[in-house]
UniProtKB/TrEMBL annotation, chain A:
Highest rank taxon of the organism: Eukaryota
Protein known as: Cytokine receptor like factor 1
The encoding gene: CRLF1
Residues covered by region (Disordered): 331-362, 398-429
Keyword Transferase in annotation: no
Biased composition regions of type Basic residues, renumbered to the chain: 398-407
UniProtKB/TrEMBL annotation, chain B:
Matching Gene3D superfamilies: 1.20.1250.10
Subcellular location, record wording: Secreted
Family, similarity comment: Belongs to the IL-6 superfamily.
Coiled-coil ranges per UniProt: none
Protein name (record): Cardiotrophin like cytokine factor 1
Pfam families to which the protein is assigned, alphabetical: PRF (PF06875)
Annotated signal peptide: 1-27
Domain of life: Eukaryota
Organism name: Felis catus
Keywords (A to Z) from UniProt: Cytokine, Secreted, Signal
Gene: TEPP
């Protein structure tokens, strides 16, 4: 194969007489015919084939040094000699090869098919590209950090990627304004991702898709339509601090700062907190943290280290009611609850049950519990009413003591009772206000005439905590008779359900407000 | 210059032209400084570092090319690789090189090698491999700058780009992929040999510019392939 060699004009006069071979400009890269080294040619050169197809190849020796003929030539594929029965001599200077049912290429740079002379030296080579056309990419998800950029991620289709190099190209266009654009910054958050840094329009949906191309063909994902404003996310809240709440041994206070981007773009934010014990992998999630930047976790174990993370979801962007995309969780912050100094109150009756996550307002749970209680109590015609402290205040004027018909006690159903105390009459002098100042949810158990009403106060297990319902929905509560000698048990709201499940045949009442009859 | 769009050789020419016109990095030494010693030492250290970096890059790259390229005793014919600057040199010749020539040969060799390396058209390689290659090119650029610094400190002029240089594309069959793989193989091999040789070059320079308190014997062999 003849090749031109650039002449000595390429050298500079200033260059000292070279002792080394002439240095030529590297731009000249075409292969040179060495002195007879390259004397064969493989055909086809660099073919692209489907997996499972066959290949017929030939190695033609020409030029000619000393008797190079097709005799003695052999093939190797990826360094391994091929079985002689696959080759045959076509004529004096050509060796043929027949390969069937090809496997996918061993490396994406192509399988190396080489024709060797009898002495093993390489005469010629050809790269085989065997693979599959790409499959449709799918699962495109995109988000915008600050409404000016967009990052998208997708999943490649199953095949085609492994054997042949597959090029992915993310394209986007405004829905009604035809021009296709291509994303340029790839691999920003993983191998199949792309980042569009600017020139994005708001208020008009974008159509986004991914094209996968390789030597054997191309595939196009489904089109994703989205509006930038619907996929806004922020960085996680910075400066998350977790600290103890005075000496309270089962509470921690979490404080954070709202992400700065929110101020710039007039978002509101809702937050989620999750926490776990140091050596556990189960996270408990607190969902109802609206747009405050602090929250108190309660119902924790004393003397334990907790890890806490917060994340943020911007919403209310330009007045829309739609939520954005949750940010990443902030870096875990750790804090420990103080060690417990005294035994649990009530002589051991108050132990919070296992680690069930407690979500949902305690009001509902307790109502459900009392509904169950009513059903299984020995006495009939119990009715419960739930008051929170404010309603109790208002109810005071309506409620008269007449409603407390004292007629004797009505023992609780065995399953719920943890201690065998008989119920007694509450003191007549107990007023709603007195009970109310304890900051508790009040329950009135109204029994049939002739029976005494039993007041039960439901308080947070740890004592006097005042807080809104949302703050305290996940802590254990104790149901205490008034006076306490009536009996007391503590239970986590979620556990109520489990308790009830143990008593088969029970159906929770479905009404969560109003009275249970 | 043939600069058809998509013409890789045209782009290569552009790159090479840019490379030649890069201003020489001024020597680290300023006036009243301790001489070229520190920058010679630095250049020596750089060659060792690059040697180490190349070892892992070459391993990965040859695996990407696939067997037989990554086999230890692989020895294909040198075809297009004749244009590569060769580090191999006769021992006496090497010993007798004067400082200026020694430095010039190093500088020119790496300029060309860097140019070839940048032209490595491996669009199909993994992103990680491309990153490693880019990183190595940057380090090699640093070595070039370091050599230029030594030359400036010793008062030697930098070699100028060759005038009238033009990329020519030899007519005939296109450069097949397998031939390209062989070129890549020899490029890496030549780079390895040059780095090995440069360490010796700079070690020798170091001893010449600083008369050593104790005599150190330099062991050398000329290396072929």
């Amino acid at each position: 194969m003849p090749a031109g060699r650039p002449g000595p004009a390429a050298q500079s006069a200033r260059r000292p007489p070279p002792l080394l071979p002439l240095l030529l400009l590297c731009v000249l890269g075409a292969p040179r015919a060495g002195s007879g080294a390259h004397t064969a040619v493989i055909s086809p050169q660099d073919p692209t084939l489907l997996i499972g197809s066959s290949l017929q190849a030939t190695c033609s020796v020409h030029g000619d040094p000393s008797g190079a003929t097709a005799e003695g030539l052999y093939w190797t594929l990826n360094g391994r000699r091929l079985a002689p029965e696959l080759s045959r001599v076509l004529n004096a200077s050509t060796l043929a090869l027949a390969l069937a049912n090809l496997n996918g290429s061993r490396q994406q740079s192509g399988d190396n098919l080489v024709c060797h002379a009898r002495d093993g030296s390489i005469l010629a080579g050809s790269c085989l590209y065997v693979g599959l056309p790409p499959e449709k990419p799918f699962n495109i998800s995109c988000w915008s950090k600050n409404m000016k950029d967009l990052t998208c991620r997708w999943t490649p289709g199953a095949h085609g990627e492994t054997f042949l190099h597959t090029n992915y190209s993310l394209k986007y266009k405004l829905r009604w304004y035809g021009q296709d654009n291509t994303c340029e910054e790839y691999h920003t958050v993983g191998p199949h991702s792309c980042h569009i840094p600017k020139d994005l329009a708001l208020f008009t949906p974008y159509e986004i898709w991914v094209e996968a191309t390789n030597r054997l063909g191309s595939a196009r994902s489904d089109v994703l339509t989205l509006d930038i404003l619907d996929v806004v996310t922020t960085d996680p809240p910075p400066d998350v601090h977790v600290s103890r709440v005075g000496g309270l041994e089962d509470q921690l206070s979490v404080r954070w700062v709202s992400p700065p981007a929110l101020k710039d773009f007039l978002f509101q934010a809702k937050y989620q907190i999750r926490y776990r014990v140091e050596d556990s992998v189960d996270w408990k999630v607190v969902d109802d943290v609206s747009n405050q930047t602090s929250c108190r976790l309660a119902g924790l174990k004393p003397g334990t280290v907790y890890f806490v993370q917060v994340r943020c979801n911007p919403f209310g962007i330009y007045g829309s009611k739609k939520a954005g995309i949750w940010s990443e969780w902030s870096h875990p912050t750790a804090a420990s609850t103080p060690r417990s100094e005294r035994p649990g109150p009530g002589g051991g009756a108050c132990e919070p049950r296992g680690g069930e996550p407690s979500s949902g307002p305690v009001r509902r749970e307790l109502k459900q519990f009392l509904g169950w209680l009513k059903k299984h109590a020995y006495c009939s015609n119990l009715s419960f009413r739930l008051y929170d402290q404010w309603r109790a205040w208002m109810q005071k004027s309506h409620k008269t003591r007449n409603q407390h018909r004292t007629r004797g006690s009505c023992p609780r159903a065995d399953g719920a009772r943890r201690e065998g105390h008989p119920l007694q009459h509450p003191q007549d002098t107990e007023t709603v206000e007195q009970l109310q100042t304890k900051g508790s949810l009040l329950w009135e158990v109204q029994q049939t005439p002739g029976q005494s009403a039993t007041w039960w106060s439901v308080t947070p297990a740890s004592g006097q905590s005042r807080g809104r319902l949302g703050d305290i929905s996940h802590i254990p509560w104790c149901v205490t008779g008034e006076p306490p000698s009536l009996g007391r048990f503590c239970i986590k709201p979620k556990v109520l359900k489990n308790l009830a499940d143990r008593f088969h045949g029970f159906n929770y009442p479905t009404r969560v407000d109003g009275n249970y009859k | 210059m043939d600069l058809r769009a998509g013409d890789s050789w045209g782009m290569l020419a552009c790159l090479c032209a840019v490379l030649w016109h890069l201003p020489a990095v001024p020597a680290l030494n300023r006036t009243g400084d301790p001489g070229p010693g520190p920058s010679i030492q630095k250049t020596y250290d750089l060659t060792r570092y690059l040697e180490h970096q190349l070892r892992s890059l070459a391993g990965t790259y040859l695996n990407y090319l696939g067997p037989p390229f990554n086999e230890p005793d692989f020895n294909p014919p040198r075809l297009g690789a004749e244009t590569l600057p060769r580090a191999t040199v006769n021992l006496d010749v090497w010993r007798s090189l004067n400082d200026k020539l020694r430095l010039t040969q190093n500088y020119e060799a790496y300029s060309h090698l860097l140019c070839y390396l940048r032209g490595l058209d491996r669009q199909a390689a993994t992103a990680e491999l491309r990153r490693s290659l880019a990183h190595f090119c940057t380090s090699l650029q640093g070595l070039l700058g370091s050599i230029a610094g030594v030359m400036a400190a010793l008062g030697y002029p930098l070699p100028q780009p060759l005038p009238g240089a033009e990329p020519t594309r030899a007519p005939g069959p296109a450069h097949g992929d397998f031939l390209q793989k062989m070129d890549d193989f020899w490029l890496l091999k030549e780079l390895q040999t040059w780095l090995w040789r440069s360490a010796k070059d700079f070690n020798r320079l170091k001893k010449k510019t600083q008369p050593p308190p104790a005599a150190v014997t330099l062991h050398l062999e000329a290396h072929g392939f």
